[in-house]
């Protein structure tokens, strides 16, 4: 299992895939080293560069290439667009390779702030062509959303492994509050609604609602971070905004249980409109009601299961109206929270996705000596 872009304790890659596969297979895990410590897969953890930056990624990719070019694993599971070339090299050496596509890459490029705008359209077109070729290149392609399947014309070697949350052993039980806390978990980017959350907070406090905003995640852009900090300072919101940065999963869930409303007001770009946000299901998994973007796909699951409301991400008034309803109605908070929790327990959870992942590995590897304790990795 290898990634040069995601950090070592990435939820989907490590806590879900690596740890699930480690129950049955010997898994070596290649990822960036972190100060928090080393992951513990069933095989070995092989640390890559400790540093993260777009320039460093080229060097880290080359490091990974040197480590894997003469290796003899039964199967290689690669996670980043940058590793497609490495996967192609491994296929030329007759290796079995899975490529895991977390996002619709070609659509995602259009909204990457760090890519010069003049390059986004041609790069998007190039990756759209590459994406269509992935099933012909690799033994299997894993996608994170059903909507990504549309471009593959029913290819047989594609499987959707959703990024659903774990069933939680403990969850929210008390729905009263002293100060109402809204929470967002994820990357801190403009297109993920961060400025909208700040505007909503300001409007709520202007309306004499005792509300705080909790942000869990890292800013991807220093200029955008400065812009948000200036907004907070201008409107004297410093004591009403708590920013934790990136946290381990166990800490995230502890905080979520202490909050009152989960936020997922993402901008209406193609990659979001056709995909479920993982954070939405994480809120549900602890019994937290949600306020999310009014995309049709999201409305079906949120309002269809009565576990939250949807709104126009750019309408501060609409969002504040919904928040006021939650603020003033404990039974509404409890009912929507419990409904979401039931949905996760019964259907939308990683435990179900794990079965699909293990079955996929069994199908690819067949009778190879790949079980824990049987295969000695390079």
What labels describe this entry?
42% helix, alpha/beta, Rossmann fold, 14 helices, 2 domains, 378 residues, single chain, 13 strands
Summed up:
This protein is 42% helix and 15% strand.
List the helices and strands and how they pair.
Layout: E1 2-7, H1 11-21, E2 29-32, E3 45-48, H2 54-68, E4 76-78, H3 84-92, E5 97-101, H4 105-109, H5 117-137, E6 140-143, E7 158-160, E8 180-185, H6 194-206, E9 211-216, H7 222-234, E10 241-243, H8 249-256, E11 261-264, H9 270-273, H10 278-285, E12 290-293, H11 296-302, E13 308-311, H12 316-327, H13 330-346, H14 350-365
Helix pairs in contact: 1-14, 6-12, 10-13
Description:
There is one protein chain. With 378 residues, this protein is of the alpha/beta class. It has two domains: 2-164 and 350-365, Glycogen Phosphorylase B (Rossmann fold); 180-346, Rossmann fold. Helix content is 42%, strand content 15%. It contains 14 helices and 13 strands. It has helices at 11-21, 54-68, 84-92, 105-109, 117-137, 194-206, 222-234, 249-256, 270-273, 278-285, 296-302, 316-327, 330-346, 350-365; strands at residues 2-7, 29-32, 45-48, 76-78, 97-101, 140-143, 158-160, 180-185, 211-216, 241-243, 261-264, 290-293, 308-311. The strands form three sheets. The chain has a six-stranded parallel β-sheet with strand order 10-9-8-11-12-13, with helices on both faces. Strands 4-5-6-7 form a four-stranded parallel β-sheet, sandwiched between helices. It has a three-stranded parallel β-sheet with strand order 1-2-3, sandwiched between helices. α6 packs across α12 (316-327). It is globular and about 65 Å long. Residues 373-378 have low confidence and may be disordered.
């Amino acid at each position: 299992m290898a990634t040069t872009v995601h950090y070592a304790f990435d939820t989907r890659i490590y806590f879900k895939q690596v740890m699930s596969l480690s129950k049955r297979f010997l898994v070596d895990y290649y990822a960036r080293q972190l100060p928090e410590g080393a992951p513990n897969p069933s095989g070995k953890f092989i640390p890559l560069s400790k540093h993260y930056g777009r320039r460093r990624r080229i060097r880290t990719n080359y490091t990974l290439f040197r480590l894997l070019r003469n290796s003899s694993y039964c199967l290689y599971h690669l996670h980043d667009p940058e590793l497609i070339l490495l996967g192609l090299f491994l296929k030329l050496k007759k290796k079995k390779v899975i490529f895991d596509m977390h996002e619709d890459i070609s659509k995602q490029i259009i909204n990457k702030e760090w890519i010069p705008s003049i390059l986004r359209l041609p790069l998007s077109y190039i990756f759209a062509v590459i994406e269509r070729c992935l099933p012909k290149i690799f033994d299997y392609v894993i996608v994170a959303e059903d909507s990504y399947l549309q471009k593959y014309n029913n290819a047989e070697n594609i499987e959707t492994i959703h990024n659903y949350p774990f069933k939680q052993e403990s969850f929210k039980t008390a729905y009263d509050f002293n100060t109402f806390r809204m929470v967002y978990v994820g990357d801190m980017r403009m297109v993920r609604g961060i400025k909208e959350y700040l505007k909503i907070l300001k409007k709520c406090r202007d309306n004499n609602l005792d509300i705080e905003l909790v942000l869990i995640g890292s800013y991807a852009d220093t200029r955008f971070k400065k812009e948000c900090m200036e907004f907070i300072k201008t409107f004297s919101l410093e004591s009403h905004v708590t920013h934790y940065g990136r946290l381990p999963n166990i800490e995230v869930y502890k905080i979520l249980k202490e909050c009152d409303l989960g936020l997922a007001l993402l901008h209406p770009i193609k990659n979001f409109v056709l995909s479920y946000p993982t954070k939405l299901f994480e809120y549900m998994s602890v019994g937290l009601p949600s306020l999310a973007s009014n995309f049709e796909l999201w409305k079906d699951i949120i309002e269809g299961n009565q576990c939250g409301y949807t709104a126009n991400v750019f309408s501060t008034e609409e969002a504040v109206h919904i928040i006021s309803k939650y603020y003033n109605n404990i039974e509404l908070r409890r009912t929507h929270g419990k409904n979401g929790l039931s949905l996760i327990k019964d259907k939308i959870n990683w435990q179900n996705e794990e079965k699909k992942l293990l079955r996929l590995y069994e199908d690819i590897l067949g009778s190879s000596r790949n079980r824990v304790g049987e295969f000695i990795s390079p």
